[in-house]
Amino acid sequence: MIFSQWKLFCSRNRWLLLLLAAAFAVRLGVALPGILEDPAARFSRPDTPGYLEPARALAAGGTPLSAGRAPGFPLFAALVFRCFGVEAYGALAVLLVLVNTATLIPVWLAGRAAGSSTAGVIAAALLGLNLTMTAQAPMFLSDTLAAFFAAWQFYFFVRFWKRRERWSFPVMIAVAALGALIRPINSAWIWPALFLLAVLPELPWRRKLALGAVSLAVFGAILFPRMAHNAARGAGFCIDTNTGAMYHQNGAMLLAKVNGTDYEAEKQKILAELDREFADKERYPDEKSRVDYRLKRFKELILAHPFAWFPQHLQWRILLPDAPTFLEILGATTSDRGTMNVLQAQGVWAAVRFYFDGKLYLLWLLAPLLAVTGILYLAAFGLLASWFWRWKSKWYAIFVFLAFAEYYFFLPGPITAPRYQLPALPILTLMAAFGLIQGWDWVKRRRKER
């Protein structure tokens, strides 16, 4: 009986299972050299110690997590270390590859919920072969987990939108709140979500108000314990204190644009200013006071230069495929060579030449995956253009795109990295799938007319 049920399940979902197997094989194949050689070095970035050090401490001695970073990824890593050992970096990389691969499931389900199993398969295939998604799979950063939760978040919204299943909306909000505990950028997503609820046609206002109230309660109930815990420890009522880094990062980028100077030079000036300011322990006795000061100074910069600040948040470079990380985990290139400075000062092509340093032939090796990314963008943004052309009937779909894609593109600001696009890929891949289907239907109609 169990065998026959499993056989029926495999028969009905064979395309999903094939895609999952292929995506996992590709990701593991790319990560395997690093796993076998030195996963701690190969899959780490400057932000990694802020996640793994508290995770090891928690796994080894039960030391509570600090307020410096959101707790989601350190808790995940601590669980892995507790099960496999505090130096089990290879196991952590493999499990991250599994989570990354499993992100195809909610994308496939979203296509089915939207009314097209074919679209679900195409969207899952585009995500499975996405260069940035593949490159980030084993990395010791929060992005893979954040993308996993963002995909389920999108899936539950599609169920609510297309099927009018009211329970799906608060479930989506709960998933979004859990995502905020992984990457705090999601903590403000409640407002676009409530806007989508408020303007949804054919839903009575009483139900909208009830769903909104329940959703706010769910969102607050999930985030409140972490924020209250940090407040009690002198870190402020926040998910983490890393948000204060916006002053010496985004603020330095803003000053570099305004003053026509170098980002690193402005960053060092700000850091020196902070060292002098925080030397006064009476004025700044705890982390909360220091974070408040940094955020206050950053807001002052924004108010002083709003017309320079806003365009910096419209960065198309966030869509660049993450070929560097892909090649770095294979050991073909190295990171942290100052490419971002070149990108900001001289543009994309100069940054590419600087980064590859005579190894441009490596791009040809990535041609198939780059082609998949190109198809994804052409189809997705082609569909978006058609929505704008027919905005009177597609205005709600445009708002959905803004909430599930542009939100994640806008908030990082000028400090962009390809990995920041991951939470937006679920909707982009599904848009691309429907765009390809509509394009093929148009081709077939043209053939019949001939």
From TrEMBL:
Residues 69-219 form the Glycosyltransferase RgtA/B/C/D-like domain. The keyword Transmembrane applies. Its main location: membrane. GO terms for biological process: lipopolysaccharide biosynthetic process. GO terms for molecular function: pentosyltransferase activity. Keywords: Cell membrane, Glycosyltransferase, Membrane, Transferase, Transmembrane, Transmembrane helix. The keyword Cell membrane applies. It comes from the Bacteria. Pfam families: PMT_2 (PF13231). It is found in: Cell membrane. It is a multi-pass membrane protein. The chain crosses the membrane at residues 88-109, 115-133, 140-161, 167-197, 361-388, 395-411, 423-443. GO terms for cellular component: plasma membrane. This is Dolichyl-phosphate-mannose-protein mannosyltransferase. It comes from Victivallis vadensis. The lineage of its organism: Bacteria, Pseudomonadati, Lentisphaerota, Lentisphaeria, Victivallales.
